[in-house]
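Case study: 4-hydroxy-2-oxovalerate aldolase.
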Amino acid sequence: MNLQGKKITVHDMTLRDGMHPKRHQMTLEQMASIACGLDAAGVPLIEVTHGDGLGGSSVNYGFPAHSDEEYLSTVIPKMKQAKVSALLLPGIGTVDHLKMAKDLGVHTIRVATHCTEADVSEQHITAARKLEMDTVGFLMMAHMASPEKLVTQAKLMESYGANCVYVTDSAGHMLPDDVTVRLQAVRAALKPETELGFHGHHNLAMGVANSVAAVAAGANRIDAAAAGLGAGAGNTPMEVFIAVCDRMGIQTGVDVFKIQDVAEDLVVPIMDHIIRVDRDSLTLGYAGVYSSFLLFAKRAEKKYGIPAREILVELGRRGMVGGQEDMIEDTALTLSKQRAAVAQAA
Ligand SMILES: C[C@H](O)CC(=O)C(=O)O
Ligand SMILES: [Mn+2]
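Here is what the predicted structure looks like once written out:
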């Protein structure tokens, strides 16, 4: 595969997807020092918000240590070259959140929906374009949709005004061929000037390989997180992806050694647990489950005595998607009742 000379934009997820394994408890100092490290390493775009995007602070998704306003207004003034993005899930984030983000200097807004529900993004994409923001549509759990279905959804987002559309492997379930067929189909269907992005999770240890497959299929924006800090087994590890791009001649503008140092010296020390492929995060990828369900399933394991792996397999079987966090506890409860009934009958 010859990708020599291809220019891509790497988009950092450490301070947004990385909020999931931190239970949204990053301090302002941690945010600021990591963002400054990423900026100095040459990362051009950095996402900052609650893990579930603007307005995510809630009983359902978890209360953060600080508000989105506090995080954004701490990070943005410190950036020398990097721009800052914010995620927004319609139904969680509102147009008022969008305006607040714009007023604080957010450059890019990413409007995220389940991969078959792009129609709910219209209001927010239209509003972001009116505000002249870099406007991205973000199709989550993309392994659940065929290439043809993704094409219709990506074209809807484009028709609302998105200047970039992402195919998002929220479950880290895809293999490189799954990425290739989806991204090639979407690339061929969108206008040439509409950018194409890929967001990977490393649950099957495919984050880097999938991201390279995405670039080969025509993606020019790739998400990654320093030391992989993100939901599940984490996002595509940025320092590894940058080193691979460097070897392949893909131009990212990110310094290989500086990004390694950010990962090693700033991000690994703040991890509450080591982000790696273990039996539970691997099960997310294997069973095709939304990566941010991991900690909810671990919590339900403690409460109901059902192993997180069993809960995750059942969530995959039921086809649960982002927004159905309340069903995790419900599923654990059902499994524990079934177990009790079997024990009683024996
Ligand atoms: C709200 C989710 O964490 C968005 C995301 O990063 C994904 O779907 O993956
Ligand atoms: Mn993610």
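For the exam, be able to explain this: The domain at 9-270 is CATH 3.20.20.70 (TIM Barrel).
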